[in-house]
Specification:
This protein is an alpha+beta fold. Helix content is about 35%, strand content about 30%. It has a 5-stranded mixed sheet.
């Protein structure tokens, strides 16, 4: 099991995301729960990022919405960085 670390910027982005997309509240909660249990579940589509976001990862909430994060496997910790649509988080 992993520990989720909520950064202040993620909390702010998550509140804004929840207001804009109340229909995705349950999907987002399920994605975060699954991420905490096992980030390598195929349903999350965890993938590494390149370019200016090299060293970070992202998971998919839906086809259009993502959560970016850093994954520290040795510490079993996941730092949540941003949430939003594809263009916003990349």
């Amino acid at each position: 099991m992993f520990t989720l670390e909520w950064t202040p910027s993620f909390i702010k982005a998550a509140k804004r995301f929840a207001k804009r997309h109340p229909e995705l509240k349950q999907k987002t909660a399920l994605a975060l729960l699954a991420l905490e249990q096992d980030p390598f579940q195929p349903s999350l589509k965890l993938h590494g990022l390149g370019g200016k976001l090299k060293g970070m990862h992202a998971i998919r909430i839906t086809y259009s919405y993502r959560i970016t994060l850093t994954l520290k496997i040795s510490e079993h910790a996941i730092t949540l960085l941003d949430i939003g649509d594809y263009d916003d988080v990349y």
